[in-house]
Structures
1.
Amino acid sequence: MVGVIRLNENLERQAQAYFEELFVVNADPNWPECTLSDIGSIVAGGTPSKSKSEYYADQGIAWITPKDLSVDKSKFISHGENDISELGFSKSSTKKMPAGTVLFSSRAPIGYIAIAQNELTTNQGFKSVIPNENIGTSYVYFLLKNLLPTIEGMASGSTFKEISGAGMKSVPTVMPDVNIIQLFNNFCEPIFKEQEILEAENRRLSALRDSLLPKLMSGEIDISSLDI
């Protein structure tokens, strides 16, 4: 598992370095100023009433909370601890978002970032970004990482800091040349695919370890005769 994690981290560093090269170090001063709302659609979430068990399902609509991202540090996410039912979806303010949406936790804490592997929803602790067609997921993912200090600085609140929907939409950035964005997305595409595969392999190995370790500890599986 350690080797899988290190390989994944190395791929992440490659993509991060290329983003900084294209959009930070060699940023064109003539790129026009814009806001995040020009980069993609900003989508908030919602929570069905916890007192209505029928609003939740074992295998329903994927519903993500910041806690899910605190437990699972993966870059890609398909489901959280709980799913919601179609009824729960219809009775809440949450919205369905397509695969490729970049999830961004907007409070408690600000700045968990993950990519939706499939259609899903979130609770109100997110201000997620559905990338515009000519922008793409890879660029938005690293852009949000780069903008995190700015977003944190725009957050407000006495109990805990939160960035509002209006605040998220107004986060200042620039609009790079679309050909440069496409160059970056093309570079990232095989990297992101490999990272998805590596994360799936890491989850498989973790599940195997978790199922075997108790049996080894209890003696249910005897390895004393193995020639190691």
Note: Residues 72 and 80 are 9 Å apart (CA to CA).
2.
Amino acid sequence: ADVDGLTYGVGAEYEIARSPFSVTAGYSHSDIEDLDIDSWTVGLRYSFGGGLQARDRAGAALPGSGVAGLLGAL
């Protein structure tokens, strides 16, 4: 079977000043053959360290590596 599809989306995040919290929102649209899917997301994110710019450049900073590193920090 041959299936053609297209997916695109956009998202944003706003960091609340002097707070480890940020608000997120996003939209995506998928078009697969005769099926159209629209998805909206809204969220609240807590940062365990670093701001938006630092996470964007280096990724999320978790202690150690993987689940073992995370559990070792507890």
Note: Residues 52-58 form the longest helix (7 residues).
3.
Amino acid sequence: MKIVLCGYMGSGKSNVGELLANKLRYDFIDLDKKIEAVEGKSIPKIFSEKSEIYFRKKENEVLKSVLESKNKVVISLGGGTPCYADNLEQLKNDEEVYLIYLKVDLHTLTNRLSKEQENRPLLKNINSIDDLEDYIRKHLFERQFYYMQSDLIVDSSLLSVEEIAQQIEKKLL
């Protein structure tokens, strides 16, 4: 089985994924970290040196290779992964994939991401909290179509990483 976590940036996919993998004794793959390892540079550097289009193509290639794994694995996707190329189709057509959307409300995402803007290439040029909230609102609206096709939706706005992992674990058993 491959447990795949999707959701907007800042939704906790990496933290929840790592904890869940430990609890289940599965391997853990953070897709963004895997891309960084393949490219030998950080996501912000890939965006600035090669462009978002290049990144999305590489993301698609790395996702395909990760999905070929025969191991039990928890995979944390990047926030936009299900929305580009044929990524969602790959995930939905793989019978071993159980796709989980970590849904977080706009206010919580804005608060979390306002503290991390410098490390987020898509956010670092946004200058005010209102503009950041508008940007996230627009993206959530656009991406909701993809995220909502998940097998499980966990409203994780008010939950700790541990509580989210526990909820997912209960659904899997």
Note: The mean pLDDT is 96.
